[in-house]
Amino acid sequence: MQVAKKLIADGLSKLYSKTEIESITKLIFEKVLGLSRLQVYLNQQQTISATNLAQIKEITERLKQFEPIQYILGETEFYGMVFKVNRSVLVPRPETEELVDWILSDYRKLKPQILDIGTGSGCIPISLAKNLPGSNVQGWDVSEDALTVAKENAALNHVEIDFVYADVITAIFPENQNKYDLIVSNPPYVTLSEQPQMLRNVTEYEPEIALFVPDNDALVFYRLIADIAISRLNPDGKIYFEINERFGNDVVGLLESKGFINIILKKDMNGKDRMVKAVLKS
Description:
- By secondary structure, this protein is an alpha/beta fold.
- It has two domains: 2-65; 75-280, Rossmann fold, CATH 3.40.50.
- Helix content is 41%, strand content 21%.
- It is built from eleven helices and eleven strands.
- It has helices at 2-12, 18-33, 37-42, 50-64, 69-73, 94-107, 123-131, 144-156, 200-203, 220-232, 248-257, and strands at residues 75-78, 81-84, 113-117, 136-141, 162-165, 180-185, 190-191, 212-213, 233-242, 260-267, 273-280.
- The strands form three sheets. The chain has a seven-stranded mixed sheet, with helices on both faces. Strands 1-2 form a two-stranded antiparallel sheet. A two-stranded parallel ribbon has the order 7-8.
- Strand 4, helix 8 (144-156) and strand 5 (162-165) form a beta-alpha-beta unit.
- The protein is globular, with a radius of gyration of 20 Å.
- The N and C termini lie far apart (61 Å).
- The mean pLDDT is 94.
């Protein structure tokens, strides 16, 4: 195992911090060797087969090309669950876990009707369904490939969710006129002018359709989803957004202009404006 650790560390030392390399190494060992983190810790002197060492070398080479470890391994962890991921969906972020946690703190003892718009891997609605037994959950996405991943993840985590095609931009929605207690979305919010400052593992591998918006209409999805919420939310229903930290006050102003009340702009664990909640005025 020490040989493999050195192989990974030497290959990635110029690209990642020591802490990141240690985390990546544990993930690789868990996947390739089928060991838990505790077993990895307890078996530091274990000899690794030539086949497994070749696998680890291949993974390291892909990492050197900035490919996200989650895509290489085909899975990631989110809110204590395993999710399949590939290049059709974004890699779930810790900030999104905070958004899920915020919603759960509001609805823990309830059985809400939930809609997630731009569902991607399904990490948000699946986490909500798992932790809100009896809730009814639907997820919309414009990508058929993303919907396939989301359906696989729902089955993997033993929840029933209705994942359906919808296009917010062209106003193609499911024919049903369901009403919801809450609508949540982590829509595209990175402006194209921000792209050059982003890491290559994001810009070269994650789906652009789920990331970017034009600089001259950065709030396009917030505006359109707010309009959907006005027609689809039950009285006193809530809307939750993950946002670009640059546009917190702008999103608040947009929601105010649409007639939403009790608007809260919330910071994430790093002190950045990253979430908004608002109530539809009854």
